[in-house]
Amino acid sequence: MLCDHFCQAEGMYLQHLSLRYFRNYVEQQVKFQAPKIILVGENAQGKSNLLEAVEWLAGLSSHRTGRDRDLIQTNQPQALIQAEMVRASGSLELGAILRQSGRRSLLVNGELVARSLDFLGHLNAVQFSSLDLDLVRGGPTERRAWLDRVLTQLEPIYAHLWQTYHQILRQRNALLKQILNQATDASQLPLWNQQLATAGVRLMRRRHRLIERLGPLAQAWQEKISDHRENLALNYGANVTAATQAPEDLWQAFMEKIQARTVTEQIQGTTLVGPHRDDVELLINDSPARQYGSQGQQRTLVLALKLAELELIEAVIGESPLLLLDDVLAELDLHRQNQLLGTIENRFQTIITTTHLGAFDPAWLSSAQVMTVKAGLVSPTPP
Ligand SMILES: Nc1ncnc2c1ncn2[C@@H]1O[C@H](COP(=O)(O)OP(=O)(O)OP(=O)(O)O)[C@@H](O)[C@H]1O
What we know:
Elements: E1 13-22, E2 25-31, E3 36-40, H1 47-59, E4 78-87, E5 90-99, E6 104-108, E7 111-113, H2 116-119, E8 125-129, H3 134-137, H4 140-154, H5 157-180, H6 189-225, E9 232-237, H7 247-260, H8 262-268, E10 279-284, E11 287-288, H9 289-292, H10 295-317, E12 322-326, H11 334-344, E13 350-354, H12 362-366, E14 369-374, E15 377-380
Parallel strand pairs: 3-13, 3-14, 8-12, 12-13
Antiparallel strand pairs: 1-2, 1-4, 4-5, 5-6, 6-7, 9-10, 10-11, 14-15
Helix pairs in contact: 4-5, 5-6, 5-8, 6-7, 6-10
Bound molecules: adenosine-5'-triphosphate.
């Protein structure tokens, strides 16, 4: 069923997206007219790029690249993303100009906003792609980036706290390099230790809280999808641990650990203590999912994590976020596909990319808006 205005989706609803010199799009207007949207096309035509633009508006970052430059069309100075959406609070217009220099301009309802913080939180989205298997198979970096992306959406201030921590970390690392090269002595170090601990504790407490809340939700999904055969546990593998999560206890533990490692840090010229070294432990039936999980268990786990993320954002924001499914349906077996599609129903406006429509249930397909993506052009799919 197509509709011109706000449709049955109960949460945020994206109505219009406009892209200019974004990845392989020169100038593209896309009108979204249904809670379920399917983008069909061959590989490398621009399907993921479109989802990436929406993901970027949600978190001011992309899971595929850390640099705005990669998002700008080759040989163009800047890219433009604009979105019109409807939320419970009313209509909203978001705009962003990305520049080769890395400098960005962000607009909310046509007004330039000075800080990322004022832009974040207007559009919420959960994206799910085959790259998410790296949450299980990859290293701690992937898992930390995931936590950070979710936290940024739940609590936009987190983006600011993250930046502050990493700025202090960079400066402390520069100092350690200078000490290593005997360009300076260690007298400045205690001051940086304190700053790092203060900023670090803010991240650690939030990551801890997030895992505490995501854990039971993900566990319930893992159990449901595996027909009660699998048990999932999410443990925060914090680099600094303390007896309690009280800020003063964490701060104390941080300071003790960093002081204990000071000689090694000065020999290695880098910071060895802090949340930039955190991890998340994923256990299936008490064994690490990375080493012992079968392919099927790992896929279930990632799906369970994503569904938990979706539920948590919905609960915290009080509105359902957009769901961006990048070519994942084909990778799931029928049972897992049904779990996912059953959860979506009409609760979340969902944009799905696929290389072929064959995998979709005909009833599901008939209620979706289907568009074709070819060489950076989006067009309605002829019936
Ligand atoms: N900065 C850029 N400038 C110009 N073109 C780009 C840029 N970044 C990516 N592309 C092009 O975008 C295309 C990739 O599009 P995308 O990743 O959206 O693929 P897709 O349609 O989702 O296909 P798949 O099914 O393989 O994921 C490639 O042709 C690539 O060359």
